[in-house]
Amino acid sequence: MDSPSSPDWAGRLHRVREALDARQLGALVISNGTNISYLTGFAGSAGLLLITPDEARLIVDGRYELAARQGIEAGRVAAVTIGRVEGRYDQALGQTVTWLAPRRVGFEAAHVTVATLGAWQRAASVPEWVPTEHVVERLREVKDAQEISVLRRGGGLISDVAGQLGGFVRSGRTEREVADLIDRAIRAVGFSAPAFDTIVASGPNSARPHARPGDRPLTSGDLVVLDFGGVLDGYCLDLTRMAAVGPISPDAQALFDAVSAAHQAAVESVRPTVETWRVDRAARAVLEARGLGDAFLHSTGHGLGLEVHEAPRVGRADPEAPSVLEAGMVFTIEPGAYLEHVGGVRVEDDVLVTETGAELLTTAPRELIAV
C-alpha cells in the first residue's frame, strides 16, 4: 500500500481533542511554532492555534493571512478557521476566548513566558488558565505513515551523502573545507538545508563531542568525526561516520572498535515496550566493559522529526521522565567515546522502532573510512 502523500492533520487534531477531553479543557492554545506546523502545516514566525472540541482556529496577522488561506485551498494547510490579528496577539486571543467562552483553557507551559500568560489572562480573565505539558510533543513521538515515508527517503539520501565522504576527507584539507563539501552534497541530493551545523572534528578536536569545524588541516594519524544531517519535507535526519587519515594508532583503532560494538548492542536492544534507558544501558555497558565508561560523555540518542532533537530521549534512567519505546518512534543511536590523548569516536544511525525490533533508516557502511 502506498504511503499517504499528505499529513493526517484531521487525525492529529482529533488526538489533541481527546487529550482536551481527558484533561477537562474547553480549549487549548498552541503557541509553539513546531507544534502548530505539525497540527496544521502552517509555518510562520508568528501565530497561535486555538483548538476546541468543535474547531481549530489559526490566529495570524496580516503578513500570513493570505498565505494561510491559499495554503488551505491548495491542501498544504489543514482546513482550519482563520482568525485575523488586527492589533496585538494577546488581544486577538482574548477576544476569541471570550467569545467562545470555554471554562478552562489550557496552554503550553513549556513555551509560554510568565509575561505572555499575564497578557492572556488580562485579555480574557473569565476562564481558568491551565498549564499543560507535552500534549502535542507526545503525539509527535510516534510517527504516522506519512512521516515514516519521509524519514525513510531521508535516511536513504543522507546515506548517499555518507557514501561520498571518502572523496571529501583528504590530508591537508581543513575541517571547514570538508564541512563545506558535505553541506553542498546535502543540498545536491535533495535536502532543503542541513539539519544543524555540520561537525568535522579531526585529531585532538575529535575528543570534543560538539567541536565546530575550523582551519585545522587534516593530518596523517587523525581520527575524523563527520556528523551531519539534512532537512527533507521539514523532517530532520542525522548521521555520523568516522574517517582515518593514514595509519592510526592501536589505541585509536581500539576506540573505534569499542564504539562500533556499543552501537550494535544498542540497536539489538530496540523493540516495543523497552524502556529507553535500557537502550542507553546496552551501549554504555559495552564501553564500561572496555574501560571506557567515563569516556562516554553524552546520551545514546535522541528523537528525530520536525526538530533534530526531540522526544524520546535515549539516555540514563530518569524516574521523573520515564519513556518506553513504541512502534513508530524514530531516534538516533550514537554512542561515543572521547579520550584527550587519543581522539574521539562516534557512530550514529537513525532507527525506526517496528513491531519486532529496529529498522535502520540510515544504511551507509559503518566501517572506518580510510583515506
What report would you give on this structure?
- It is a single chain.
- The chain has 371 residues and is α+β, with helices and mostly antiparallel strands.
- The chain folds into 2 domains: 9-140, Creatinase/prolidase N-terminal domain (Creatine Amidinohydrolase, Chain A, domain 1, 3-Layer(aba) Sandwich), CATH 3.40.350; 142-370, Creatine Amidinohydrolase.
- It contains 11 helices and 20 strands.
- It has helices at residues 9-22, 33-40, 62-74, 89-100, 114-123, 135-141, 145-162, 165-168, 175-188, 250-269, 276-289; strands at residues 27-30, 48-51, 56-60, 81-84, 104-108, 128-132, 193-194, 199-202, 223-228, 230-232, 235-236, 239-244, 301-303, 310-314, 330-333, 336-339, 343-346, 349-353, 358-360, 369-370.
- Strands 4-3-2-1-5-6 form a 6-stranded mixed sheet. It has a 4-stranded mixed sheet with strand order 8-9-12-20. The chain has a 3-stranded antiparallel sheet with strand order 7-10-11.
- Helix 4 (89-100) packs across helix 5.
- The longest helix is centred in the C-terminal third of the chain and has 20 residues, at 250-269.
- 44% of the residues are buried.
- The mean pLDDT is 96.
